[in-house]
């Protein structure tokens, strides 16, 4: 009688997710661009939502005024 | 069933992007109803090999297969982990039932099998306790009962008693041998303790330090049932010395690298 063989499968294959590295970077960049556009077009006042470029430039200008 | 490991290698990529060869061209077999111990220094890839056999990790090359006649509703392998790996929100009974639920075993049969394996592992009266209410030895008994309950073709044990104190470990080893005598399942038992391997196994497969390769296979010619009194038996001492001879230089090299060495006793 022929002996049956059962190859061991990788039972954890379903746990592995594809790594969408480009999508992750683009999504973050898109969010920052959208934020910048919202503040530049004046949809939201920069008093309540400073622009992403404005945030790091503020301490620089404050230091220059000293 | 028979387990065959054929030219299995495993290479990891570490955080620095370097390839680390954990196992290299490992060949071994576990015969039906055989108790085999896999022994080697820390970091030699014993647990990696066990996980590959259990299907929890893919091999980089080579293959693992089970040979024989499968029984319906019975998985090829079940693993008992070093750190128990119990569900803390489930009682001992519910932990043992888990594998049976996954297999789709009906309620009545599930309850019967759970009760049977809880009794067999000495947990009668503790079914409703949660893992945090149990001692280390009892937790591992739940882990063993959970693995036995699904009635796997092969039982894989990854240093199951290393988290226990010496006295509990000795008692648990004897209990496991008693359970094995009743169930006669093929067992692959990973350990880095030479005495434990010789005490338990029919054969000890010795692995080298990383990359893990089979150094030799040592048959243990001690009669069963085994007991503590056999530790002074010439066959016991001879087998321990032979394994130590195989592993000593490996252990010294590992020590120089700063890893743990295998325990001689």
In short:
Chain A is mostly helical and 66 residues long. Chain A has helices at residues 21-40, 54-65; one strand spanning 5-7. In chain B, strands 5-6-7-3-8-9 form a six-stranded mixed sheet, with helices on both faces. Chain B has a three-stranded antiparallel sheet with strand order 2-1-4, covered by helices on one side.
Structure description:
The complex is a heterodimer of chains A (66) and B (265). Chain A is mainly alpha-helical. Chain A is built from two helices and one strand. With 265 residues, chain B is an alpha/beta fold. In chain B, strands 5-6-7-3-8-9 form a six-stranded mixed β-sheet, with helices on both faces. A three-stranded antiparallel β-sheet of chain B has the order 2-1-4, covered by helices on one side. Chain B is globular, with a radius of gyration of 18 Å. Chain B starts with a strand and ends in an 8-residue tail after the last helix. The interface between A and B is medium-sized, with 11 and 17 residues.
